[in-house]
Design goal:
The complex is a heterodimer of chains A (about 110) and B (about 120).
Chain A lengths: L8 E4 L5 E6 L10 E6 L6 E4 L13 E6 L2 E6 L8 E9 L4 E4 L3 E5 L1
Parallel strand pairs in A: 1-9
Antiparallel strand pairs in A: 2-6, 3-4, 3-7, 5-6, 7-8, 7-9
Chain B lengths: L2 E5 L2 E3 L5 E8 L8 E6 L5 E7 L6 E3 L7 E6 L4 E6 L8 E10 L2 E5 L3 E5 L2
Parallel strand pairs in B: 2-11
Antiparallel strand pairs in B: 1-3, 3-8, 4-5, 4-9, 5-6, 7-8, 9-10, 9-11
Classes of the chains: A mainly beta (about 110), B mainly beta (about 120).
Pfam families (chain A): V-set (PF07686)
Protein name (chain A): IGL c331_light_IGLV1-51_IGLJ2
Keywords (chain A): Adaptive immunity, Cell membrane, Disulfide bond, Immunity, Immunoglobulin, Immunoglobulin domain, Membrane, Secreted
């Protein structure tokens, strides 16, 4: 069981908006930056968001990140079938001196 | 072109050792911390280890501490993971990743599969 908690699955229709939550504690999300990754089937993860809300070059502004207290949220607007993937949050844990990943959330675009 | 390429995976018996390599190209390897992340079949991502840009600092997940060693050769632009006393639960695809920040990985390799089985 992951220290960072994500919902196992979310779904929404094409064109709609979805949010994915990531819950942690003061030793990780509460005092460190959060990143988000997209993993398409059979491929390596891809960085979508870093430092809570920054997008790397090439990531469309349909993807957004936010953080409040010990929780973080990934938002995806204008859903496309190509967004169907697993999404992971990640952060540093100051007590463990380790990087943590959430358990992952499978997005289905109906 | 910024690229990471892992090698060294395979099938190994429990208790044996294996060394993974990750060749970097297209960026100044010696300026960045590097990580290993693994993914067991059908499971989520699990962080394994990190090494600082100059090799002076290393951290490990509790699940591999004392068995795995991360290292790097900046003259060869290569990252390594020495895995000893392998267990069935170490079976996974192993990815190397370049850090953008301490906890954000912007470049990933394609992964190399390690199977621990008798």
């Amino acid at each position: 069981q992951s220290v960072l908690t994500q919902p196992p699955s979310v779904s929404a229709a094409p064109g709609q908006k979805v949010t994915i939550s990531c819950s942690g504690s003061s030793s990780n999300i509460g005092n460190n930056y959060v990143s988000w990754y997209q993993q398409l089937p059979g491929t390596a993860p891809k960085l979508l968001i870093y430092d809570n809300n920054k997008r790397p070059s090439g990531i469309p502004d349909r993807f957004s990140g936010s953080k409040s207290g010990t929780s973080a949220t990934l938002g995806i607007t204008g859903l496309q079938t190509g967004d169907e993937a697993d999404y992971y949050c990640g952060t540093w844990d100051s007590s463990l001196s380790a990087v943590l990943f959430g358990g992952g959330t499978k997005l289905t675009v109906l | 072109q910024v690229q990471l390429e892992e090698s060294g995976g395979g099938v190994v018996q429990p208790g044996r050792s294996l060394r993974l390599s990750c060749a970097a190209s297209g960026f100044t390897f010696s300026s960045y911390g590097m990580h290993w992340v693994r993914q067991a079949p059908g499971k989520g991502l699990e962080w394994v280890a990190v090494i600082s840009y100059d090799g002076s600092n290393k951290y490990y997940a509790d699940s591999v501490k004392g068995r795995f060693t991360i290292s790097r050769d900046n003259s060869k632009n290569t990252l390594y993971l020495q895995m000893n006393s392998l267990r069935a639960e170490d079976t996974a695809v192993y990815f190397c990743a370049k850090e953008e920040t301490m906890d954000a990985f912007d470049i990933w390799g394609q992964g190399t599969m390690v199977t621990v089985s008798s």
